[in-house]
TrEMBL record:
This is Purine-cytosine permease. PANTHER family: CYTOSINE PERMEASE, CYTOSINE TRANSPORTER CODB. Residues 1-24 are annotated as: Disordered. The chain crosses the membrane at residues 67-91, 112-135, 155-173, 185-205, 230-249, 270-293, 313-334, 355-375, 381-398, 419-438, 444-464. Keywords: Membrane, Transmembrane, Transmembrane helix. One of its GO terms (cellular component) is plasma membrane. The lineage of its organism: Bacteria, Pseudomonadati, Bacteroidota, Flavobacteriia, Flavobacteriales. GO terms for molecular function: cytosine transmembrane transporter activity. It comes from the Bacteria. InterPro entries: CodB (IPR030191).
Length: 473
């Protein structure tokens, strides 16, 4: 789910300092073809989170049709979002998300966005540390966190999480080039591990044909204690918006600004169908093996929720190779996520060195990793993550496609020198507040209201912009 390849751009850096064109369009000489993106997307979406997301689908009692067909459709909608929104706008302006937002929103508002982005990155990285800890803890016979656990379950858990967090933070603080290269080197290894997990799990389940594969999930079941029941539309909308911040939220403008043409956006399909389809289903299969064990059957009979700790699940399937894969999958995604969070915080504390803010981000992520609830509730957290950040992408989309038609000025903050565009902030605040209240009041899963929130934010942005621009803000 998490992308580790994006070189983070924070408004304020100059080309001469970083060579990444943070505050100008990428020149034609730096444009790249589809081959530069295909492997990148395929590898980087087979991340540590996939080891948890697959099993979590089973805890929701999902059926075979809902999972297999729902993931096909949901991931296809995500690809369409990347192709016709993100890539289309990226090749038009060839600017980073941060700089394009700054042109519309103003520097002060973008700073607030970076704080929110940084905090959410830290919590996501914390879940990666949790995932790696479940693998590191196997040789120490560590008690694994259960699905319903919220707090740390012992001293061993705390020590291992802190140790992993410290190592990851120190490596991330040394710079993005090293961690991104390492992630790309290790990605094929991780993808292979997912594939092997799926093949071995099918053998352990006695599956020899497609009907047997289909019967692994069958008609579904009741959700585990503390989980909600997933239907076809839960699967479709969740898989569509698992990376909402990246596509309809426009974060991947920073990636596709290097693309020769918008059609390169189709390469996102490699990530969706290698990582978000094959890897999720493979991870679900190894959990299906675990669910058939006498130990788990006893737990379920007693109304208890079994663990979804990926370390033991992968170890029981492919042995030491599984432990290594889980550690690396968590490591290769937590490292750059912490690095990106640190740079986001640096927008607020520009005088603090990158090394120090990255360590700060790593410290927050490590504390978050101590609490298993984030990883155990990853479906809910990812839905919240996209729900919060995606509407900012609507600002960019509606400014690009509808500003001229609606009689408002594009890139308003840049043209007027406004540092805090009230129209943008109010559009996000109202849309977020209304739909979050609706979801809370009527117990609606957030993925169901992400698209309405996004559309509402875009429309309100146009309405408020007409008002404020006529008023002169």
């Amino acid at each position: 789910m998490e992308q580790t390849y994006t070189e983070e751009e924070i408004a304020g850096h100059t080309t001469s300092e970083s060579g990444e064109y943070e505050r100008e369009a990428v020149p034609r000489s730096k444009w790249k073809g589809w081959k530069s993106f295909l492997g990148m997307y395929a590898g980087e979406h087979a991340a540590g989170t996939e080891f948890v997301i697959g099993p979590l689908f089973l805890t929701t009692g999902v059926s075979a049709f809902d999972l297999i067909v729902g993931l096909l459709l949901g991931n296809f909608l995500a690809v369409l979002s990347w192709r016709f929104l993100t890539a289309e706008i990226a090749v038009k302006y060839r600017l980073t998300l941060y700089y394009q937002l700054e042109k519309i929103c103003g520097k002060r508002l973008v700073t607030l966005y970076n704080v929110a982005n940084g905090v959410l990155f830290c919590f996501l990285a914390g879940s990666m540390i949790t995932i790696s800890a479940t693998a590191v803890g196997i040789p120490f016979n560590m008690e694994m966190p259960r699905l319903t656990d919220t707090m740390p379950n012992g001293v061993t858990w705390v020590v291992i999480v802190i140790a992993i967090g410290l190592v990851i933070s120190l490596i991330a603080a040394r710079g993005y080039d090293m961690v991104s290269k390492a992630a790309n080197w290790m990605s094929p290894f991780i993808v292979l591990a997912f594939l092997l997990c799926g093949i071995v799990a099918l053998q352990q389940l006695g599956v020899s044909d497609f009907s047997g594969f289909w019967d692994v999930w069958g008609a579904g079941s009741d959700p585990f204690p503390g989980q909600i029941k997933f239907t076809f539309w839960h699967v479709v909308l969740w898989s569509w918006f698992a990376n909402a911040a990246m596509h309809i939220g426009m974060s991947d403008l920073s990636v596709f600004r290097f693309a020769r043409k918008a059609s390169v956006g189709w390469t996102s399909a490699a990530g969706m169908y290698v990582g978000h389809y094959m890897a999720w289903i493979a991870a679900a299969l190894i959990y299906a093996v675990y669910l058939r064990s006498p130990e788990v059957q006893t737990m379920l009979a007693q109304g208890e929720a079994p663990s979804v700790a990926p370390g033991p699940l992968a170890y029981n399937t492919i042995g030491i190779f599984g432990i290594i894969a889980v550690i690396l999958a968590g490591w290769t995604t937590a490292n750059p996520t912490i690095y990106r969070a640190g740079l986001a915080f640096q927008a607020v504390m520009p005088k603090m060195s990158t090394f120090k803010v990255t360590l700060l981000a790593g410290g927050i992520a490590t504390v978050a990793g101590l609490f298993p609830a984030i990883a155990m509730k990853l479906l809910d957290f990812v839905a919240l993550y996209g729900f919060i950040l995606a509407p900012f992408g609507a600002i960019i989309v509606f400014d690009h496609f509808f500003a001229t038609r609606c009689g408002i000025r594009k890139f308003y903050a840049e043209k007027t020198g406004v540092s805090f565009n009230n129209a943008v902030f109010l559009a996000w605040l109202v849309s977020f507040g209304v739909f979050y209240f609706v979801a809370w009041k009527f117990d609606i899963f957030l993925s169901f209201v992400t698209l309405p929130t996004w559309l509402c934010c875009g429309v309100l942005f146009l309405v408020f912009s007409r008002y404020y621009q006529k008023k002169g803000q």
